[in-house]
Structure formats: C-alpha cells, structure tokens
Specification:
The protein has 113 residues and is mainly α. Helices cover 67% and strands 0% of the residues. The chain has helices at residues 2-9, 13-35, 51-68, 79-90, 92-101, 107-111.
C-alpha cells in the first residue's frame, strides 16, 4: 500500500516513474515470496480464504479505484496476482461485505439528502 500511495503522491514525471518502479518491485516480491513455490490455490495458502487474502483485498480494491481514476496510473498485475485477486473478489464473504458496504451512507452522501 505505501508503494501505491507514493505513486499517487508524486507530481514530477521522474519521481512518478521511480514510484512506479517501486510498486512493480513490491508486486514482484509478493509473487516471489508467496507464489514461487506454488501458485495460489486459489488463495494464499490453499483452498480456504484466510487473513492474508482478506488483508490484500483492501490493496486490490485500492488498485481498482486508482485505475478507475481519471489519468490514474496503469497498474499491471501479473497472472498469479490477477488470479489471486479474482479468487478473493469472487469469494462469497468478500462479495457479501461489498454488498453491505454499498448500503452504508457516507458523510458526504448524507449531507446531500
């Protein structure tokens, strides 16, 4: 998450490119540390979703948000990360949490009502 935040905070082209490189390195490290011995199956440690998966769901949601921003940076997840991201997003507990979150009014929305 710090590498993603840093990428968004940079305004200068050279600094933004360095931040993009740090994010790419961080993403490669996730694959090297977690998936080099065996790819996601479909989750971090096998068939059952766990705390690591749910923690990274927050990061993957942030990546989706950033990619949807006007002039947002293009963030490429390699095949193992994309497969893992999709498995987490498709899990029933994550879908249910997403559905519940969409029903919660936020402060700025409440002010317009």
């Amino acid at each position: 998450m710090p590498a993603l935040t840093q990428l968004l905070a940079e305004d200068e082209a050279a600094a933004k490119e360095q931040a993009r490189g740090r994010l790419a390195t961080a993403l490669r490290q996730i694959v090297d540390w977690g998936f080099r011995p065996s790819p996601p199956a479909p989750f971090w440690h096998g068939a059952d979703i766990g705390l690591v998966d749910l923690a990274y769901q927050t990061f993957f949601q942030a990546v989706q948000y950033v990619e949807g921003m006007k002039d947002g940076p293009d963030i490429v997840l390699d095949a193992p990360l994309e497969s893992w991201r999709q498995a987490i997003a498709d899990h029933p507990c994550v879908r249910k949490a997403r559905d519940v979150a969409q029903t919660v009014p936020y402060a700025d929305e409440a002010e317009t009502r």
